[in-house]
Amino acid sequence: MTPQMTVPRRDKLKELLADGENVILFAKLDAKLEKFHQDNTFLYFTGLNHPNLIYVCEKHAGKCNDMLFIERSDPERIVWEGEKLGIEEARQISGIQRIHYLDELYNILTGICTLARKLYSNLGNVTLNRPPSYPMFMLEPVRNRYPHIEIEEINNLVAPLRKIKTDWEIEQLQTAIDITGDGILDVMHNAQAGMMEYELEATIFYRMQRSGVMRWGFAPIVAAGINAATLHYEKNNCPVSPDHLVLLDVGASYNNYSADITRCFPISGRFSPRQREIYTIVLDVQRQIIAMIAPGVTMAQLNERTRELLAAGLTEIGLIKDKDELSKYYMHSVGHFLGMDTHDLGGREAILEEGNVITVEPGIYIPEEQLGVRIEDDVLVTAEGHRVLSAKIPKTISELEAIRLQALSQ
Ligand SMILES: [Mn+2]
Predict the structure, then answer these.
(1) Whole-model pTM above 0.90?
(2) Fold category of 167-408 in CATH
(3) Alpha carbon of 162 to ligand 1 centroid (Å)
(4) What residues does the ion ligand 1 have nearby, CB within 5 Å?
(5) CATH classification code of 3-162
(6) How many CB atoms lie within 10 A of CB 331?
(7) How many angstroms is it from 222 CA to the middle of ligand 1?
(8) Residue intervals in the chain for CATH 3.40.350.10
(9) Cα(290) to centroid of ligand 1, in Å?
């Protein structure tokens, strides 16, 4: 990300602020011996993929003044941690001109707080049964000394910006999706009965890391048989049996943009009659929902139609008697916004607009039959309707069986 991308984003953010409203964004802290993963709102507005930074923007008398706080370099720590981000480098990457050190934060914030009514921050989920987030901890002195200042999570403010993807962002998503698809195909070509689910996971990760991807967008789900009926199964530690349908719900993160794809395939090379019956219902519903996608359509409409169609399918095969029973076999929503976060900002009540990217992922889960089927594609909303960014990844029964039978014959 370059200042050419992040400066216009910050300009839009500044337009959203009224006088007396301010923004403070915290980069993630570094954790010793753990891979660093930046806060996505911080990255979106600064382009800085470094830990322990703070961005502040104040608006007063119609003018915005923004600044970045960085760490002071400690020569004795360089051999352990490498060079810290310096003032010039921070300026070049972000385009933010005013740079301070972190130990100046509270002094400067005091000045800002005397004029402030509101502070937006990337607080994260606030729940009473969890420790406070790092941003909440850092803002505690503000809360205590200036109780009149309203401190609000920034997500709702920035969602209208983040959910409309630029061409560059769509390119990053497309690359993440293509690499994920290649990894899924590698599994379809190489999976054998007797392998462990985590071996299949490793096959995808190997493809990802050879393709310029550093990490998963979310914890991968590789689920054989009954495990596919657990929606967020992440153990991936069971052996694959010859009669299993394997469900892969995976996504590479490329330049911090996450794919999210689900495919199911039969280890044996052939869907059983029951697997075929359920798979066909899910695929038909998924296609009909994708066909509805266009600007002006709401997520609520997609969800409602999914429930109607799945209920009709399950009623027809006699698994349920009416729509009220559907939640026994289908209990999630049909999709979500996709972007830097796998579950990106956008909301369940959103009206689709050109430039949105959403997932479409109906499923049917029948634990008593050790069966779970979900099919998930990533779809861009265009002026004319939509474009399926993951269209190249096979999903018809005939394609999947052909790939598996060929793999097994080698
Ligand atoms: Mn998803």
Answers:
(1) yes
(2) Creatine Amidinohydrolase (3.90.230)
(3) 18
(4) 260, 359
(5) 3.40.350.10
(6) 10
(7) 14
(8) 3-162
(9) 14
